Predict the structure of 3-hydroxyisobutyryl-CoA hydrolase.
Amino acid sequence: MAHDEVAPAPVLLRTEGRAAYLTLNRPRAINALTHGMVRDLAAALDRFEDDPSVAVIVLTGAGERGLCAGGDIRAIHADAVAGGRDSFAFWRDEYRLNARIARLRTPYVAVMDGIVMGGGVGVSAHGSVRIVTERSLVGMPETGIGFVPDVGGTHLLARAPGETGTHLALTGLPVGAADAILCGLADHCLPSDELAAFTAELAEADVQDAVRRYARPAPEGELAARREWIDTCYAAGSVEEIVHHLLTHGAREAKEAAETILTRSPTSLKVTLASLRRARALGSLEPVLEQEYRVSCATFRSPDLVEGIRAQVIDKDRRPRWSPARLEDVAEGAVAGFFGVGGGGGLGLLGPGGEYGSSG
């Protein structure tokens, strides 16, 4: 870059009419979130939520590939390898932002076009109006990199119908528009070629009126037809039992799901299942985010996170060497340790009595 060139802002802000538009602007990285972007989004919400001239906040992603591919996991990998703690501060601010989005008083329209993974789900699926398109691929792929669903993902997936959320969490597989709506990750499907007109109209029109004008039936999904084996197999009490039920059920798709699960980090799988079951009991988003923060900080120190990111993103050999390598070698005591008080402190979302706090 030449000396006199200025790097484009990673989050673009503009207002028009009644709308404030927030655009994630790292298209070459599918708008992966950096710590600075998280802070910029939080500052934008501070600015617009109490502005009487702003009736709607609209989140979009620059480029053609997607809203957001997740957090900047290369930065997390570098931090973990160096023995740092910067990731703890990133997650703290990111999860506070997720909670903030969920409790916004101003309508928040998230345009979940294209790829929406991990942290991208966190800045969109907690919004009040969640738009997908025929191009959407929405998922929480964390078990494939030795991590655990976060950004409130375990809260969302724990509330999905039947065991569909468990299926998505353990396999890490993305879903299209219809299945995202079925699982409670999105609300409405709009044609991708009408998104520009729809978002422009929000500058003047009522949000729900605009949604009604542009919404179309989503392309047919897959999960509804698979609910029988999903709800049966994933209701088991352990990952080992789930895999056994999937392998022996008889449905080809169930066997394929088991084979996918067996490529994921065994530790991440067990911690993910425990996280989902605990999230169901916790109920509301804030205590689940507090739990996810403890788990994320614990996972940061585990060998599988560094190895998973290395295999999938750094070296791209797609051959992670998990430690331990087998589900049966992951001790229950080790899983419980992920839910203890981590080295990153807390988020401050809950008051001393467990009630919702005021930290933003």
